[in-house]
Write a structure and sequence with these properties.
3-stranded mixed sheet, 12 strands, about 25% strand, about 30% helix, alpha/beta, about 270 residues, Nucleotidyltransferase, domain 5
Length: about 270
């Protein structure tokens, strides 16, 4: 990113979002809290990426047939971060969740169930669950996810606006993080977590922070490059910016209150 001529954005996705925007001429960075829901934390059936964790989900918008894949292929024991994003996107595109985040129980009475006093969408019942308990996403889970994805999108948008460019001007989006690199960009766009740009602009980097730390420990040249970059980066303090809170409100919907920001999602909804 810092060596190229084209404008690029680096996003480390997780409980906190670390963002860098720029090219070889200038760099702007910020960090902000997106919330643990994106990594499966605090969700009723959230789990880390481990055997049995649901990592991919699809729902046919016409038949509502559910298919999912778990890590290792065994019975489901929970839902990890990439699975959570897949699930919310699939439910939204299938009409199981309203743009406000409200579940629509009458849309699929077979899988909608009252659990803990609220509606939930059940992926696997007690018989199918690997731990003998149902695997589901609750109404509260959906609300938490929307808050987290809304914060993520707003952080990216504030950074972009702070330098007077648009998402369409960014030629490459590098998505990093042990969890972030497993995100399906199309699903993240569908819920309004990542910007609606051509999908070939997204590139997963894996655990870039860990690899960078190893490189800095092993090579003096890498440490010198880090020091040089630190002097070049302009840091934006997100928690003191009034525009963050004002923009966050619009992002607390699926995918956003302004559908013009997400034309590909709007087109899919019209064809539903």
């Amino acid at each position: 990113l810092h060596r190229g001529e084209e404008l690029a954005m680096f996003v480390d996705v997780g409980t906190n979002a670390e963002v860098v925007l720029g090219n070889r001429d200038w760099l702007v960075a910020c960090a902000g809290a997106a919330g643990p829901a994106l990594e499966g934390g605090i969700l009723a059936c959230g789990t880390r990426a481990r055997p049995g964790a649901v990592e991919r989900v699809d729902i046919d918008p016409d038949t509502l047939e559910l298919t999912y894949r778990t890590i290792g292929g065994g019975p489901p024991v929970g839902i990890c971060g990439s699975g959570v994003i897949d699930l919310l996107a699939a439910m939204f595109l299938a009409g199981l969740v309203e743009p406000t985040g409200k579940l629509v129980p009458e849309r699929d009475p077979r899988r909608m169930r009252r659990i803990g006093g609220e509606w939930a969408y059940v992926l696997a019942d007690e018989a199918a669950g690997g731990a003998g308990t149902p695997v589901y996403i609750s109404q509260s889970d959906v609300k938490n996810l929307i808050r987290s994805k809304g914060a993520m999108y707003t952080i990216l948008n504030v950074v972009v606006q702070s330098v007077g460019v648009g998402f369409e001007d960014i030629r490459r989006f590098y998505v990093a993080g042990a969890f972030g690199s497993y995100i399906d960009p199309a699903r993240a766009v569908a819920i309004g977590m990542l910007p609606d740009v051509p999908l070939d602009r997204f590139q997963g980097l894996g655990n870039a922070a860990g690899e960078g730390a190893v490189a800095a420990l092993r090579r003096r040249s890498a440490r010198a490059e880090v020091e040089e970059l630190r002097e070049r980066i302009t840091y934006l303090e997100m928690n003191v910016r009034g525009d963050f809170m004002s923009q966050l409100t619009g992002a607390l919907f699926l995918p956003h209150t302004d559908l013009k920001r997400f034309p590909s999602v709007a087109a899919r909804l019209q064809g539903r």
